[in-house]
Specification:
The chain has about 280 residues and is α/β, with parallel strands linked by helices. The protein has a single domain, classed as Spore Coat Polysaccharide Biosynthesis Protein SpsA, Chain A, CATH 3.90.550. The chain has ten helices and 16 strands.
Amino acid sequence: MTPNKNIPVVILAGGLGTRLSEETEAKPKPMVEIGGLPILWHIMKIYDHFGFSDFIIALGYKGHCIKEFFLNYRNFNNDISLSLANGEITVSSERVVENWNIHLVETGVTTMTGGRVKRLQDFLHHKTFMLTYGDGLANINIADLLAFHRKERKIATVTAVRPPARFGEMILHPERSTVEKFTEKPQIGEGWINGGFFLFEPDLFEYLKDADDSSSLEANILERLAEDGQLNAYRHTGFWQCMDTLRDLRLLEGLWKQGTAPWNIWNHGKNRVSR
């Protein structure tokens, strides 16, 4: 398989985000901010922590917002000097910013997930690659995920997670009225769901050869891989949270502000950001 440093990371960032319309009327969901920076940046920092810095971002709805963010990222993170007379711009200081290679690829406003991956075939056809959604965070160990995928030697690996409960959990004493344990929004004790953070081998494109923009990665491709015994599940029992609703956003923002964001593995919870 390809050495770690050459494994690209695909992030699906083109959906409409209709369940978070309070934020996504003006921007794509991956650009919704947590702690002043887009959730997309947080996802990329997770991968970067484990040495994966080659990103392919599949754009769709309001993709120009993502392009503008990265085109201006270096200037936003440094002091700049400019001449109004001739338009010359000089970066006056060089603060350290992320050493990322980013490919911003237009994959269609209404294209489904399978169709978006198919449109990236020229970038990915001969490579092992990672893939995740642009709205989910986890304290996942990407190195362990890769090691698991290599050991199992299947076409695809999906990270299986236990979804967080909507409400807090209480364990009551069987005879008295006392609460023996209270946990605020724990990961539920049963049931596994698709948590993103995939790994795929190039043979995936054999399953995508007849795909079009209406093809779903989940319904059309993963189901067939499972039927063929080519889909493994990496069980992640730690923190995982998607950002589907305003309630989810407020939860993630609160964890960041408190300095207790479990996904902030690159700063061990200190919540330092580049700007």
